Amino acid sequence: MSIKAIIILSLLPLIACDRKMDPFIIDGEHVRIERHPHAAFTGTSCLVNGEVSNWRCGASIITQNIVMTAAHCFDSCRNGIIKGILFHTGHENKNLGRKSSGHKFAIHSGYSSVISGYDIALVLLKTHLKLSAKCSRVALMKYPPYGEVAYVSGWGFVNVSIPLPLTYCWC
């Protein structure tokens, strides 16, 4: 499946939704990776105008060598030099999971740092992920069920005013 097709499929639920998107996902609870084996921790580091820009984000495993994450995690890398793209998979504690490196990325052409829509990037990994019960592809449905509760998982802040360490996966 091409990168373009994956982006289009992942945006279908957004196209059908007429509500305003909230740019933040805050709160949640610590979860075991077996509940969300598609979840990956992403760390990027880029050199832009002589300064290092670091981002820590969640991601979803699309295939053994493609991971989907947020475009804002790579926005500064578009005009800079990539120092490193690292993924942790297979464990809810990012320090205990497997490490993989990315080397190419594509940001959705409709993404803008000013608005929150199309905040999607795909990353090509240097090596294939070893899939298992704790590291598997996310289900991308051709016809998703509308009007049902959805869950997200990832590494991030659980409170806007009290940032916690980005060590564990939350849902």
From TrEMBL:
One of its GO terms (molecular function) is serine-type endopeptidase activity. Keywords: Disulfide bond, Hydrolase, Protease, Serine protease, Signal. Gene3D superfamilies: Trypsin-like serine proteases. Residues 25-156 form the Peptidase S1 domain. Residues 1-17 form the signal peptide. It comes from the Eukaryota. The keyword Disulfide bond applies. Pfam families: Trypsin. This is Trypsin-like. It comes from Bombyx mandarina.
